[in-house]
Amino acid sequence: MNRGIAHRQVFFARADGQLFLSLLGSAGQRFRVEIHAYCLMSNHYHLLVRCPDGGLTPFMHSVGSRYVRYLNGRLGRDGSLFRGRYHALRLESSGRVDRVARYIHRNPLEVGIDAERYPWSSLRYYVGADPAPDWLRTDMLLDEHGGCALYRAFVLDVETTSDR
């Protein structure tokens, strides 16, 4: 995750979010990083990634530096956008991965936004509202939970009739 300097805004327009997601997809392919979940908020972002070949640092550097160059150029400014290097946690267990994915997908709820309809989160692909982009890996979490409906219930605390 990373946050804007002094909690300042880092995504200003639809095009900003679209470019950031495009950068995620291209850098994921280039550095062989699997992207499992994301959420872009106005002043920060969260990612859940898996790096089988250890490419996290070049992946994050590529996405961050290219986005900052784009945004600074678009806004006619220079200097830092983010508060520093990204913050990363190593997740050793599937339970921790689950909790982090849930936290990421619930982020819009913390500010009163409908998480299922929020266009800057990967949750909509997990609940089957839209087909996922090629670069987003939904299979791991959906398999773990038994499909879209049960994953949705897990994230949104919805009661289901399942035995899970």
Helix/strand layout:
Blueprint: E1 2-3, H1 14-31, E2 34-41, E3 44-50, H2 56-75, H3 94-106, H4 123-126, H5 139-145, H6 148-156
Antiparallel strand pairs: 1-3, 2-3
Describe this structure in words.
The protein has 164 residues and is mainly alpha-helical. It contains six helices and three strands, in the order βαββααααα. A three-stranded antiparallel beta sheet has the order 1-3-2, with helices on both faces. The model has no long low-confidence stretch (mean pLDDT 94).
Radius of gyration: 16 Å
What profile does the largest beta sheet have? 3 strands, antiparallel
- Fraction of residues in H or I helices: 40-55%
Put simply, the count of helices is 6
Structural class: mainly alpha
Low-confidence stretches: none
Assembly category: single chain
The averaged pLDDT comes out at 94
Summarize the structure.
With 164 residues, this protein is mainly α. Helices cover 43% and strands 10% of the residues. The protein has a three-stranded antiparallel beta sheet, sandwiched between helices.
Give short descriptive properties of this protein.
43% helix, 6 helices, 3 strands, mainly alpha, three-stranded antiparallel β-sheet, 164 residues
